[in-house]
Amino acid sequence: MRVARIWRLWFFATILVMWWVLSADSRSTFFPPLQKILTQLYDLWVVGDARRELWSSLGHFAIGYPAAGLLGIGIGALLWKFHRVGHAVSPVLYFVYVIPTAALLPAIVAVMGIGSPMKIAVIVLAAIWPTLLNTLDGMRGIDPVMLDTAKVMHMSSARTVRTVVLPGAMPQIMAGLRHSLQIAVIMMVVSELVASRSGIGFFILEAQQRFAMTEMWTGIIVLALVGSALTLLFIAVERVVLAWYLAPRTGKSGT
User: Fold this and answer.
1) Is the pLDDT of residue 138 over 80?
2) Using one digit for the tens of pLDDT, what is the confidence trace for 230-244?
3) Hey, how many other C-beta atoms are within 10 angstroms of the C-beta on 147?
């Protein structure tokens, strides 16, 4: 694991060095030197007013992603509990899942306008599906013997879900949440590119329209940093939540 981590860091550092060296003498309007981009990134995003765009985007994400996760787990659990309903609506769920939320943006904007509620709704509508479907599939995959044992022990439905079903389905639920995280970040930006007056996506689009390519690149880099930071944070949480599940696998891989 440590060797793989070191190789990833070296690869990332190599890419940065190559970008720095190859772009050092660039006079291209579209591909300015990395040094110039980083200098402007500091001026705009660290000490400048562009930070407001970052906080605007993160605010929508901070509401939309948890809402999508909670709704996905809740609806998935209900469809598992009422399995006849779950099996009946499964084809519809998978049909709706394959419709890109971006294709629904014109209708969503027409109904909700271009304010914060629209951006949050877009994140929720796009990010709910991986968590919902993974929750449903994970709960359906619980060993029936474990459920029968819970019945023999006269466990209540709530306790069975809490102590048997959720732990058993948690690896798939976390996988769904990770996929939902990536979709939430993407749709956070897409909603700002299509219809918005604030946010990182709006900043990138507005800079491109003004032909301020260096500013545009700073927005892209900030977005990459934000997405990477959120992913690393999720991985840290996942390791805590799934410690019981990951520990045996880590031990096996290390032997």
Assistant:
1) yes
2) 999 999 999 999 988
3) 15
